[in-house]
Amino acid sequence: MTDMLLIGLYALAAGGVVAAAGAGALRLLRDRSILVHIVVLLSVTVTAVVAGVAAVAQAMFLSAHDLRVVLVTVSASAAVSLVVGVAFGRRLAASAVWADQARERERRLEAGRRELVAWVSHDLRTPLAGLRAMAEALEDGVVADPATVGEYHRRIRLETDRLTQLVDDLFELSRINAGALRLAPTIVPLREVVSDALAGVAPLAARRGITLRAAESGWPRVRAGERELARVVSNLLINAVRYTPEDGTVQVDAGLEAGDVWLAVSDTCGGIPDDDLHRVFDVAFRGERARTPDCGAGGGLGLAIVRGLVEAHGGLVGVRNTGAGCRFEVRLPAA
Ligand code: ADP
């Protein structure tokens, strides 16, 4: 009986030393991946068994040969359990990462929904209140002279057009956020999409004295939803023209690189403040210039829509400042 107690104590002491070393190792590696933790845990368990067996064998004065036999047997089982453990650990680590990504996606969607609700209450209700006030003033005859009445009518029409555009943007964004966007990808010649968008923005550019330029050649084809791609290009172009001071230049280029199609819209807007660069794609973000009345205030949804549509295609969009302005670049998987 005392023998058994002694054997137990030897095994416990050996295992305890290994466990303490393992706890130290885990502490040092606390920032590493789940897989590293699992490997350390398994190694500690296996080493504790080996150490226990070795300590007991030494104390029991096993012959060197018997001790080797025991150690080889234990090591073989240890190797098998380590291999199995690493394989399962990998799967566990991967599912933990997926769960993490799913949580992050859900968190972003929820934040997007909250931003949209806040946006609706401010950006739709405020102009509606203005419209109502103007309509009431007309109805009650508070404004009667023909010039003011004409001006009220004009403002009501402009504001209604703007609200229509905002509701349209809002609808698009909520479809993207709800994951309800169904793409019907076809092989699209990028050149034609860009030509159409340039034609659409040309009157605004002419009014502001802005030169529009597009590369002569090198236009790739891309696999994309045509309507969505057209929206991406025209949102980027409209912004470039709106935020570039008069007599500036807007340039569109495209090409193929490392299997991706890239499209860049560069302007001479003078640059986006560094603090704003990472926020321009956020829902409802508007830079300082967008809040000045002469700029034709937008809803702050244009670039959020661009990002949503590009990501729905498995692509990426980014922006950086260049010398005279900024450059928005879209990357999409090639056709
Ligand atoms: P909106 O234009 O309606 O304000 P967007 O989402 O299209 O909303 O753009 C967000 C902000 O990003 C704008 O308010 C503006 O400050 C900045 N921005 C977007 N495009 C450009 C550009 N081409 N040049 C400079 N600033 C830009």
UniProtKB/TrEMBL annotation:
<keyword id="KW-0902">Two-component regulatory system</keyword>
<keyword id="KW-0418">Kinase</keyword>
<keyword id="KW-0472">Membrane</keyword>
<keyword id="KW-0808">Transferase</keyword>
<dbReference type="GO" id="GO:0016301">
    <property type="term" value="F:kinase activity"/>
</dbReference>
<feature type="transmembrane region" description="Helical">
    <location>
        <begin position="36"/>
        <end position="57"/>
    </location>
</feature>
<dbReference type="InterPro" id="IPR003594">
    <property type="entry name" value="HATPase_dom"/>
</dbReference>
<dbReference type="InterPro" id="IPR036097">
    <property type="entry name" value="HisK_dim/P_sf"/>
</dbReference>
<dbReference type="InterPro" id="IPR036890">
    <property type="entry name" value="HATPase_C_sf"/>
</dbReference>
<feature type="domain" description="Histidine kinase">
    <location>
        <begin position="119"/>
        <end position="335"/>
    </location>
</feature>
<dbReference type="InterPro" id="IPR050736">
    <property type="entry name" value="Sensor_HK_Regulatory"/>
</dbReference>
<dbReference type="InterPro" id="IPR004358">
    <property type="entry name" value="Sig_transdc_His_kin-like_C"/>
</dbReference>
<protein>
    <recommendedName>
        <fullName>histidine kinase</fullName>
        <ecNumber>2.7.13.3</ecNumber>
    </recommendedName>
</protein>
<dbReference type="Pfam" id="PF00512">
    <property type="entry name" value="HisKA"/>
</dbReference>
<keyword id="KW-1133">Transmembrane helix</keyword>
<dbReference type="InterPro" id="IPR003661">
    <property type="entry name" value="HisK_dim/P_dom"/>
</dbReference>
<keyword id="KW-0597">Phosphoprotein</keyword>
<dbReference type="InterPro" id="IPR005467">
    <property type="entry name" value="His_kinase_dom"/>
</dbReference>
<dbReference type="Pfam" id="PF02518">
    <property type="entry name" value="HATPase_c"/>
</dbReference>
<feature type="transmembrane region" description="Helical">
    <location>
        <begin position="69"/>
        <end position="88"/>
    </location>
</feature>
<keyword id="KW-0812">Transmembrane</keyword>
